[in-house]
Amino acid sequence: MPIIGTQASQISGHLLTPNNFESISTTTLSSTASDVTFSSIPGTYKHLQIRVMASAVSGNQDGLMQFNGDTGTNYSYHFLYGSGAGSGSAGAATTQSYMLMSNNFYTTGTSLCGVAVIDILDYTNTNKYKTMRSLAGVDMNGSGSMNLCSGNWRNTAAITSIKLYPAGSTINTYSSYALYGVK
User: Fold this and answer.
1) How far is CA 51 from CA 10, 20, 178, in A?
2) Most buried among 40, 82, 158, 171, using CB within 10 Å?
């Protein structure tokens, strides 16, 4: 019978084991950019995880993503959000040219930023469509929000590249993106 106080390191077969994550690529912008794209992603892992800390040059922008350079209407997403002012949900069905990583994610300036952890599940499985989930938050100097998003790319191809970008601005200098493979 399991003991409630069992340490995570003693549980076998879970994703929390530190050795399950392997760094594939890390990018910290030295100048502004329209997007960050991870390409030539090896197909040697079970899942992928992206960790983001970023801001935009102007406006509060949604964080968007695409796979394998696909700009067609092959994406859908939904999300839940909460802030000190309220909560809600929204989504977009099968006619999107991107997935939502997080709404209102890229804040303006370099002193405020959004952070996100994005999981892309079974990215090499060619027998099913690809899904992602993200947990993201942004502080806007006393206000802000938390988001739980999920998305679907209706394609069975293995994912070899991932593009992340703000909806209507450019990404600020010093924004950081890290891609990990999950064994």
Assistant:
1) 25, 15, 5
2) 171
Give the pLDDT confidence score for residue 160 in this predicted structure: 98
The answer to whether the CB of 138 falls within 8 A of the CB of 144 is yes
Domain layout of the chain by residue ranges: 22-182
Q: State the CATH class of domain 22-182.
A: mainly beta
pLDDT in tens, 14-62: 555 667 899 999 999 999 999 999 999 999 999 999 999 988 888 778 8
Q: Tokens in use for 161? A: 């590249």
Contact 22, 181 (CB under 8 A): yes
